[in-house]
């Protein structure tokens, strides 16, 4: 909600930048999640977030270049800011995705409980 209000009061180039950042983040999400999935076990939350940001840079930069070239009115000089802001958006989304996968996939296989027999 706050983003919408800020976007309204900012100029058209800032709204364009925000749209590009959102698009780059959305396009990068699957690639980044695939790159880090299964490699963060045993890491703390901070370590995982840093690992995600480090691995995300290549994919985000690639997507940013594609989007900036195709987006009318975009300036190629925006690349550094787009990459930084998209990385800020992607990291929590990937963390959420990894957490949901870990939640759905138990670390130990589940065993069916055997009914207990009562001693007479």
What low-confidence regions span 5 or more consecutive residues with pLDDT below 50? none
Strand content: under 5%
Structural class: mainly alpha
Helix share of residues?
over 70%
Helical stretch tally: 4
Shape: elongated
Largest sheet: none
Number of DSSP-assigned strands: 0
Instruction: Estimate the mean pLDDT confidence.
Output: 83
Order of helices and strands: HHHH
State Rg. 21 Å
- State the end-to-end distance: 66 Å
List its salient traits:
120 residues, mainly alpha, 71% helix
Question: How would you characterize the overall build of this protein?
Answer:
- The termini are far apart.
- The chain is built from 4 helices and no strands.
- Helix 2 (12-36) crosses helix 4 (79-104) and helix 3 packs across helix 4 (79-104).
- The mean pLDDT is 83.
- It is 71% helix and 0% strand.
- It has a domain at 23-104.
- The protein is elongated.
Q: Strands, helices and their partners?
A:
Layout: H1 2-9, H2 12-36, H3 45-70, H4 79-104
Q: Quick summary of this structure?
A:
By secondary structure, the chain is mainly alpha-helical.
């Amino acid at each position: 909600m706050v983003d919408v209000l800020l976007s309204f009061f900012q100029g058209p180039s800032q709204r364009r930048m925000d749209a590009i950042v959102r698009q780059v983040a959305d396009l990068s999400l699957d690639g980044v999640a695939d790159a880090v999935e299964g490699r963060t076990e045993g890491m703390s939350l901070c370590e995982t977030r840093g690992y995600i940001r480090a691995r995300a840079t290549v994919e985000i930069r690639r997507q940013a270049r594609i989007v900036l070239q195709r987006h009318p009115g975009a300036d190629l000089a925006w690349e550094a800011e787009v990459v930084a802001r998209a990385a800020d958006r992607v990291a929590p989304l990937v963390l959420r995705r990894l957490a949901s996968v870990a939640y759905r996939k138990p670390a130990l296989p589940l065993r069916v409980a055997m009914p207990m027999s009562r001693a007479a």
